[in-house]
Amino acid sequence: MFLTLNYKSRKPLCDQLCDGVIRLAACGGLEPGEQLPSVRNLAQELGINPNTVQKAYRILESQGVLETVPGKGSFLASENNAQEQLRARTKKTLGVALQEALDRGLTVEEVADFCAEYLQKKKKEEDAL
Question: What pLDDT digit, counting tens, does each position of 82-98 carry?
């Protein structure tokens, strides 16, 4: 499994690990039902405390991203909950950015115009490919 952590970031390693697993699953780097490394192996690979990995796995299980089978290990959930989690986080981030723009004096019309222009530009780029 290819995960990288930023040890200098203020974001907790546990949260970074959760985000990394969700990203891998959402982009197809992990297949539904695929087994994840054991807590001990992943902790050793990343050079972090096994308790951090265990906590991340518990969080991901509570979100429906992972399924844990006692004695067997942790597996990516059969349903594509990782994609749903990533989409939900993206919408939340987008909402925060839009609110920040409004708080800084942009009008609703200016924000809407900017979004429309940006998306139109992206569509043209996609069509050119």
Answer: 777 778 888 999 999 99
**Measured distance CA(37)–CA(63) in Å, rounded:** 19
d(CA 91, CA 32): 23
| Partner residues linked to 73 by β-bridges | 69
According to DSSP, residue 64 is labeled T
Residue 87: per-residue pLDDT: 82
Stated as kind and residue range, the H or E segment containing 67 is strand 66-69
How far is the CA of 79 from the CAs of 48, 59, 68, 71, 89, in angstroms? 29, 17, 14, 22, 18
DSSP-H helix ranges across 6-107: 13-26, 39-46, 50-62, 81-103
Contact 1, 42 (CB under 8 A): yes
